[in-house]
Amino acid sequence: MTDKRQVAMVIDLNKCIGCQTCTIACKTQWTNREGMEGMWWNTVSTSPGEGTPKGWEKMGGGFRKGKAQPGKLPKQGEFGTAWNFNVEEALFQGDKHDTLGPIGGDPNWGTNWDEDIGGGEYPNSFQFYIPRICNHCTKPACMEACPRGAIFKREEDGIVVINEDHCRGFRFCQEACPYKEIYYNTVTGTSQKCIMCAPRLEEGVPTACSRQCPGRVRFLGFLDDEDGPIHKLVYKYKVAMALHPEYETEPNVFYIPPLAPPSFDEEGNPIDEDRIPMDYLDSLFGPAVGPAIDLLKAEKAKKKAGGESDLMDTLIARNWLDLFGPFTTNPKDVAKTLEERVQNRQG
Amino acid sequence: MRVQKVNTIAEYTDPAAPGWGSVEVTEIETIPAPLGLQPTEYIQVSWEERPYGALEQASLRAVHDGTSIAIQMIWEDPQPSTGAGEGFPDGAAIAFPVHGEPELMQMGSPEAPMQFVQWQASKKQARSVLAKGIGSTLPGAAVGETATGSWSGGRWTVVFTRSLAGEGESANLVPGSNTQIGIAVWNGSNEERAGIKAVSADWTALALDR
Amino acid sequence: MVSNEPITVLERSICYRGLAEAYRSPAGGVGILDESWIPPPSENAKSEFLEAFAPAVSTTACALYQSAHSNREQTSLYEELIRWYDHFGLQRKAKAELPDHVSVELEFMHFLTYREHVSAGDEHALTTLRRAEKEFLTKHLHPFSVSILGHSETFANRYKYLCLEHELFVRLHLQDFGEI
Amino acid sequence: MSKGVSRRNFLKAGALAAASLAMPNFLARSGVSLTALAAETPPDFNSSLDVYRKHWTWDKTVRGTHMINCWYQAHCAFDVYVKDGIVFREEQAAEYKQLRPELPDMNPRGCQKGCSFSHRMYETNRIKHPMRRAGGRGSGKWEQVSWDDALNDIADKFIDTIIKEGTDRVIWDLGPDINIGAANAAQARLAQLTHSICLDSNSSNGDGHRGAFETFGNVYMERSLEDYFYSDVIIIWGANPIFTSIPNAHFFTEARYNGTDIVCISPDYSASATKADLWVPVKPGTDAALALAICWQIIDGGHVNESFVSEQSDLPILIRADTGKFLTGKDLDGGLDSTFYTAGSDGKLREVDRKSLELEGYKADLEASLTVKLADGKEVPVRTVYTLLKERLSVYTPEAVSEMCGTAPKLIRRLAKMVINAKALSNVSGSSMNKYFHGNLTERAMILIWVLLGQMGRPGSGYSAFGFLANDGWEDYVSGLRIKDRITFGTEIGLDLMWDWMKGETSESFFKKLSTSQFTDPGGNLPIWTSSALFWHVHGGVSELAEQADKWVPDLKKPVKEALHESLEKKWLPLQPPMGKHPRILFHYCSNPLRSVRGSQKLTEVLWPKLSLSVAIDFRMSSTAKQADYVLPAAAWYEVTDHKWVTPLVPYNHVTNKAVEPLGESKPDFWIFTMLAKHIEERAKSRGLDVVESHMGKEIRLANLYQDMTMDGRFGEDDLDSAAGAILEQSSNLSHVSWEEQKETGFVRYNSLGLSPLSIGNAGDLKNDEPFIPLTHHIDGKQPYPTQTRRIQFYLDHPLYLDHDEHLPRFKAPPSIGGDYPLIMTGGHTRWSVHSVWRDNALMQRLNRGQPYIVMGQEDAGTRSIADGDWVRCFNDVGEFIVRAKVITGAQPGQTIMYHSWENYQFAGSGDARSVSPSPINPVELAGDHAHLKIGMLEGQPGCFDRDTRIEIEKLSAEDSARLRQG
């Protein structure tokens, strides 16, 4: 019996630059087949903002005091439709005034519509980027909602996978997931979601979103690997914490909360009042976020004074491969073929 | 409910076939499938305050020609949903016991399974499904099942056909003998799917002419 | 030859070959397809071909790439088609036309139907090949042909008939499958 | 037997006889014949899902990169995944070595654009066949033509133009994406063999770093990314690296964790400001005031590094009180006017050593003030540059400066304290400063901070301006590989340069002269360059937009047009073809001027009518290609083998390998230029032409053009690979690794700066296993700077600078370019494209808003009742355009941001973002007859300015927006 292990990820919001390379890496790896045009299994949004799908934090799902909570079914438009463009007319056949733009008129929402809008007021506005993928929760609301048992959590790495042969497209899972990380494929009539790059992990290759991140933002590894960075950041230093722990699904993607430059008083002089309101961060990460930020600031000050800091050196990760725990293989060196498509073969 | 003998069911496969006019109608009452029986807590919790399965009854007619049976089912549905894109399709199903005394509300049991033929507005082919209890539906044995539906004037008319005899774990229908029939209807525009549906409270006796 | 028994598998395969050649170049398909079906090319065959199928040249032209007729991204459509050809042991040549060009998809059907012809008697092979033909026609070639036909209505040259007969031929083949 | 399909005469009689497999596009993967494959039992198949059983499979991976000018964030090694001749995915190679344990490595590099290039490569706007316009220019009607027809027609027009009007009527509009590899070596060879003119696009892009040029006599100074880790204060100033240096950004976020203070100075709370430890808001275009306030805190607080400034800068050098000019040997004793003086505390004069900065213990009196007797007997008081500077800076107190730039006095003092106490101070440089009219004054003031503190030439300490690092074999290849070693290179150019060489000039100043000579008379078989900004202003009519410049720029001494003509007449700035001689043929190569030039609406109105031929060479349709007569399909970057220049930030030569065949009939650029030479030779022979004289009297051998182009057949049109290899074998800084191995790994670190005029200015020891620090040859090696005083020079005694009171750094408020309107249209490079290459890519657009938008703050939107997403009209006295509004919290009141590089055809209606930017020439940039203020490669040319543009924005009613969007 393989002992139960959990692959986890830590995403450092102080290093994320919102460039969406993770989003494109995932798109070109997985969601480029029929019916998946509008799917982004990895997204990056600017907080504060509506995020994607639009207003997902108000769409319910997850658990309260152990009890399942009803959720709203997100629409394709709320995820952001995949606009097509009138390239043929505008570039090759157009008369002078054929403007190249989305077919179907002016869009008013898109996957990254509120990029860089932020919150608060100048000069004390605030914003940070937050990447999201399926959290492969320890208590997955999607798995418990599916009447056909078509979703299962793999023993060897805790990855939550939909078996598309069993899925009838009921989408109770899409409603029940409090993070709204599940998409519906209108062509195959099945629900589809992030599979934590299981075929890559099985070959020792990091996930596309973590390996291709130019900001070196994502730590990847097993939660129980004590000398790995994830265990240290989550349990020892407690600077990596779950997003919306109150949803009670015990997500396995953790976030290092964002620091920010000082805000200003009336005359424009810097004061040491949090530019990012602490109550806003509490609403995202819970009460643990305050002490985490204090620790980050203290450790940075230690380094500035010339001292040592294991926490800072871990977050810096001077040797890039230290980010990825046991997954350090370059995909090009993997066998020329990755066998089964995970979705419909397991279980 | 009586299944009239005819020489061939070929003329009855079209929902609007004139032949149906002279076939005896049986009304089968339907009630919302009980919330308590929904297989997962999430479904129960999210449909607690939401009305579903509001259909009161459906009218059925049935004929058989010794080799296969055709069943016409008509029910009220002001808003047809073909389930295009993200929508949920309207649907209907006709169930028969395979063997033993399957409890209709429990969708049968391992010892007493039941088989049903399902029609969905979003698909052309019908589906044969075997159920051995709630949440345990598996693809059923092929019984040459077909289903064609058409909507007009606020009503769906669907004609199911299947062979009388079925190999493997499928419900056998024998001319001249009695069996039972149960129905289910999904209203797509109310996002009804899986266990959220209108069902006949219990089996209705079904007598096949010789 | 005009007669009314049904078309043989081999004839169907050679028709696919003729259609593929007709879409490949102005003088294509001449040796195989009957004139009553598609009139022979006139002297300015090249400009007729460009007039019909080069969007950069005329506003009424119809692109011969499936990606221009579907909102699928090119790279994902190429990948899927390459997997189809790969599944049946075929590999693209270095200087081959793109995998979603109508002549390449017709050529693939020419190959599958030819394989069906040489597999006569092997029931398992026949059902597998027919199932693959049906799925490839349903998912790719037939909707693509219907879209080409739609564009070709405004054609003023001989290619109007090619698109008409091509769609009819593919539709008849699809109807032939009934239930397998 | 299938039923249903009745036999119709599909087939011709007898067609069945030839009933065999005919498959031109396929072969059997297993290598057997197709008929054999058909006979095998087929694999089982039940649904198309089976096709996906093997999800991720590929035949091969090839090392590739993207041959585009990502500049500060350039370049990244990729693995390109190929299956069946199609590229369907790429992923970063991420195999860069860590230099030292305490320094982060460079991995993985790459960005969202590079990771989706295979998607861009196959998009519908890809050009697959040579096309000729079939309607009027810009009508969008095209006809497909063969390569032969296109090249013959172009060759004929090329020859007609040379014979009738001269070789300087053929113009190569070279965009920022030229690779200084084999591709553009072929273009450069063709240009120098035909003496046609290459446009230096740096000036019209506004990337000239004028302030650094005026101060160092050279713009090239950039460190390697690892060196930032030794800074304890990094100032992000005039840049937004979180948007535009995606693969580099982790060095800054990791340095922040390492205890370094990151300071971001920008008008808006930008993406880079969110990663800073201190954000310093400042009014757009007023950064000079802030910099000078810091300088005053340094001087006033007694923090000046006196030994550094005395040794390295002109601060101790004496200025005549009467003329405001340097005291020269000529003044004192009829000697040279290039001899300058400092004075010791004993009042005795000392000549400034022109050959070395070494002072051997001599201590100049920074505040010397004495009277000297000139050769003509006049008694003249002289004072040091430092004294004059001190008086000038005393007004820049925090309180006074707060009025100018809006930054609070306490914040200015805190920033100054941080800068003064820094052990190793560095800056992240971008190129937005020199897109402001007075950008040169801003940069001179910023540099003054670093020089006053002596923060230069040490680990983590130094000022970064313009980054450029290129192989130095390119010039050799372009000139026909006849120049083996560097010294004989001198003799090729001309004796006066040799004499300088003998006189102990540094190699840097030698190559500065060489780079200037390429704008006047290159000789030595090198291409002739001319400043693109001058070209667009004079021949393109852009200068007409600046007629009312004197209304916008208060202290102009004469109308801009007049100053421009004076500079051309006095030959301060060379322009080819000269004013009055119309250009006839324009080749657009790696460039998109109709989209990028400020005031580009003038080009189609004034320049295009003069042209007999406009040829665009590109892999995609663009705003410029739409107006061309011919569009020639260039192969994309995974379809060619070549290499590309980088910057010292990432000092690795990057190589792209041909992964797949070029799509359709597209061809590598190398092929296109070599074939054009062949067609010109053939057409010349058939027209009985042999030798023609260029506008400079050089023999143009049209009848042997192809022979010369290919160096007697050694590098024919299909020899791109060996040509690229030959360039590296000639390079002193890249020949330490074989070309075969470089193609294999895809990247190799430079082992020295090399002698290219484009890199030598970095003046440091670049080693392939050490971080790189620029300017150490001056700081440690005591080599003189290539300036008038051979020092870092803050005093410019050129008449233009004295007339405009810019002889010393000062603050000038940003002029209201475009008219007196309340909002300032700042801008910046976008996260979503490098130049315009990805701007209309569907994947990038879906992660953006799909349409152009202008960013504005909540307050300005509120007062104009504009909501996020509304259609608005942006206008001033020069033009207008319509666009959607994006209302954000971080923009400063009064500031709008029009991010860069939307294509013209993406704008609704007729205008686009360039229509409101007249970009008048700054008169001081017209200087050219000065010891170091003269034109050179990528420097010393007038810039382009759009960030001071003033506009008003009004909400469009529904009917207006419908009407205007028809245009």
Structure report:
The complex is a heterotetramer of chains A (about 350), B (about 210), C (about 180) and D (about 950). By secondary structure, chain B is mainly beta. Chain B is built from one helix and 14 strands. Chain B has one domain: Immunoglobulin-like (Sandwich). In chain B, β7 and β8 form a beta hairpin. Chain B is globular, with a radius of gyration of 16 Å. Chain C has one domain: TorD-like, CATH 1.10.3480.10. The radius of gyration of chain C is 16 Å and the shape is globular. The model of chain D is unreliable at about 1-5 and about 485-495 (pLDDT under 50). In chain D, about 30% of the residues lie in helices and about 15% in strands. In chain D, the strands form eight sheets. An eight-stranded mixed sheet of chain D has the order 7-6-22-21-20-8-9-19. Chain D is an alpha/beta fold. The longest helix of chain D is centred in the first third of the chain and has 19 residues, at about 145-165. β15 of chain A pairs antiparallel with β2 of chain D, so a sheet runs across the interface.
Brief account:
The complex is a heterotetramer of chains A (347), B (210), C (180) and D (967). Chain A is α+β, with helices and mostly antiparallel strands and 347 residues long.
Q: What is the overall silhouette of chain B?
A: globular
Oligomer: heterotetramer
Largest sheet of chain D: 8 strands, mixed
Beta fraction of chain D:
15-25%
Fold topology:
The complex is a heterotetramer of chains A (347), B (210), C (180) and D (967).
Chain A: E1 7-12, H1 21-29, E2 43-47, E3 63-64, E4 67-68, H2 76-79, H3 87-93, E5 128-132, H4 141-145, E6 151-153, E7 160-162, H5 172-176, E8 182-185, E9 190-193, H6 198-201, H7 208-211, E10 218-222, H8 229-236, E11 241-242, E12 253-256, E13 263-264, E14 270-271, H9 278-285, H10 289-304, H11 310-316, E15 337-338
Parallel strand pairs in A: 1-12
Antiparallel strand pairs in A: 1-10, 2-5, 3-4, 6-7, 8-9, 11-12, 13-14
Chain C: H1 9-24, H2 45-53, H3 66-69, H4 74-87, E1 90-92, H5 102-118, H6 123-152, H7 159-177
Chain D: E1 26-28, H1 34-39, E2 56-57, E3 60-64, E4 78-83, E5 86-92, H2 117-121, E6 131-133, E7 142-144, H3 147-165, E8 170-174, H4 182-194, E9 197-200, H5 202-205, H6 210-216, E10 233-237, H7 241-244, H8 249-257, E11 261-265, E12 278-280, H9 287-300, H10 306-312, E13 318-320, H11 329-333, E14 341-343, E15 349-351, E16 369-373, E17 379-384, H12 385-393, H13 398-405, H14 409-421, E18 425-428, H15 439-452, H16 474-478, H17 486-493, H18 495-502, H19 507-520, E19 528-531, H20 532-538, H21 549-552, H22 560-569, E20 585-589, H23 593-596, H24 601-607, E21 613-618, H25 623-626, E22 630-633, E23 642-644, E24 652-656, H26 669-686, E25 691-693, E26 699-701, H27 705-709, H28 720-729, H29 739-745, E27 747-749, H30 776-779, H31 799-803, E28 823-828, H32 842-846, E29 853-857, H33 858-863, E30 871-875, E31 880-888, E32 895-899, E33 950-955, H34 958-966
Helix pairs in contact in D: 3-26, 4-26, 6-15, 9-13, 9-14, 9-15, 13-14, 17-18
